[in-house]
Amino acid sequence: MRPFPSGQIQMIEGTAMVLAGEDIDTDRIIPARFLKCVSFDALADQVFADDRSELNGQHPFDQPQFQGASILVVNGNFGCGSSREHAPQALMRWGIRAVVGVSFAEIFYGNCLALGIPCATASAAEIASLQQAVLNEPGGVWSLNLTTMRMVSGSADCAVSIDPGPRDMLCSGRWDATSQLLDHGEQLQALMGRLPYLNRFAT
């Protein structure tokens, strides 16, 4: 299993995979029956469980040429439907580290940002061209550069966009609330020591 994202995220590199289709919702990404899990760890095996079962091994997440992919290239309104945080958790635990598409549902976008998964956008025509480039060379290594805001592989080069706020959070590492808390442990302890409602019973 590849390490989960942490700290500053300025570039995602790896192979890419195409998941074509508009309005792919979170119920498809992770069916509701898997929401009872007490840990997100097992969700990798269940991502797109129903779609994969119906396609009998022909779903992109089952096709050998896409195994180990880090960048998922989708179409419009990806991640719509319910607000379940399990959807980006399942994608991340399968190995996806960035998603590039025409547009994303707002809550899904926010849930991805909280995990350090960039969601970059481009026009429908540019995404169609990008998807074809990935399909033409499924083993090609791509880089999604959050500094230059381009997705590049060999001769293929696509300009992408991320809103300035989320982009700054990813590049600076401020998306990672847990690491920020751990890095500022002494300041937090000092602050807690000054809060009267935490210390009124102290002896």
Helix residue percentage: 25-40%
CATH fold label: Aconitase, domain 4
CATH superfamily: Aconitase, domain 4
Please identify the structural class as seen in this structure. Answer: alpha/beta
Please give a structural write-up:
The protein is α/β, with parallel strands linked by helices. It has one domain (11-174): Aconitase, domain 4, CATH 3.20.19. It has helices at 26-29, 49-55, 86-94, 106-114, 124-136, 164-172, 177-183, 185-194, 196-199; strands spanning 11-18, 71-73, 98-101, 119-121, 141-145, 150-153, 156-159. Strands 4-3-2-1-5-6-7 form a seven-stranded mixed β-sheet. A hairpin with a 2-residue loop joins strand 6 (150-153) and strand 7.
Write the layout of secondary structure elements.
Layout (H helix, E strand, L loop, with lengths): L10 E8 L7 H4 L19 H7 L15 E3 L12 H9 L3 E4 L4 H9 L4 E3 L2 H13 L4 E5 L4 E4 L2 E4 L4 H9 L4 H7 L1 H10 L1 H4 L4
Parallel strand pairs: 1-2, 2-3, 3-4
Antiparallel strand pairs: 1-5, 5-6, 6-7
